From TrEMBL:
Organism placement in taxonomy: Bacteria, Pseudomonadati, Pseudomonadota, Gammaproteobacteria, Pseudomonadales
Entry-linked Gene3D superfamilies: 3.30.70.100
Protein name: NIPSNAP family protein
Signal peptide bounds: none
Any Pfam family: NIPSNAP
Entry-linked InterPro entries: Dimeric_a/b-barrel, NIPSNAP
Length: 111
């Protein structure tokens, strides 16, 4: 399992446009076999940083999604929307593997 972490620098005056962009991508990721964990918009602190998290069963499954998204009309429309509105200034993408509690794991006392 691999989780993609996207950190966006957005135009804070185009927050509504960026939010719409996020609502376009959530069902698309799900349709291509991923599990979207949502977009996270600025609330307190920096007004120009937004995040997105989604998980695929493997890095190969993610790469397959990326290839297919380049040929999908709805994905291309979402890319075009971001380009037209210029709501995204830049982004960086990182991948993480989640660690979950396992049965029988030692419990570490909280401080």
């Amino acid at each position: 399992m691999v989780t993609c972490y996207l950190r966006y620098l957005i135009d804070p005056y185009k927050l509504k446009e960026f939010e719409h962009y996020g609502t376009l991508w959530i069902p698309l990721v799900e349709r291509f076999g991923g599990r979207h964990h949502g977009y996270f918009l600025p609330s307190e602190g920096a007004s120009n940083v937004a995040l997105a998290l989604f998980t695929f069963p493997s890095l190969a499954a993610y790469e397959h999604y990326r290839e297919r998204s380049l040929e999908d009309a709805e994905c291309q429309a979402a890319f075009a929307y971001a380009e037209q509105t210029r709501c995204i200034l830049s982004y960086e993408r990182s991948f993480f593997r989640p660690v979950f509690d396992s049965p029988g794991a030692p419990v570490t006392p909280a401080d």
